[in-house]
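@channel sequence for tomorrow's demo:
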Amino acid sequence: MNTRNIFSFAAVLLLLITVSFVNAGTEGKENQHSQKTSVIVVGHGAPAKDFPKLKEYFKLHDSHTLEAEQLEDELIHWPRNEKNDEYWAGFIKVINAFKKSNSFHSIHYAFNEMCAPTVKEALMEAVKENPDVIVLTSIMVTPGGGHSEKDIPAAIELFKEEHPDIKVVYAWPYDVSDISNLLLNQVYKFVK
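structure tokens (generated this afternoon):
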């Protein structure tokens, strides 16, 4: 199994565990609240295998030139399917399972990099649902991660500056003991 597949498996596994935890006892809770809550689950994102300019993208990635930005936009919006992006396909399966909980006004997804929709795009999509609050959470649950601690909050702050009348909450950081308990419960399923 290559590094990308291991990363994809681990990320989807963590989201599955998180969805199981969230769904435990939340079935239909949206109806119990007067507040319309839209949720955005943010995944990492991965490049599509069939993107023809992938080497060029990684070569220019940190250059911050116009050419690099255009190439990144092309990669982000490259069509995805189960064959060209297994991470995307696995993430979408988890999101679809999450939606079946019927616990929230609307549920959306975003990717931090290399895939669409971006956090900004997902926020704009959620606004169309006219929620009272938008709550974002990330499958990147461990402390110390640059995406969860810097990139996602920065995207949220930019959105808030442009839309000060919309309440946005970032449901992060995760409590380390909650993460540990989720992982322990998953391991126990295989050893008992």
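heads up for whoever presents: The longest helix spans residues 3-23.
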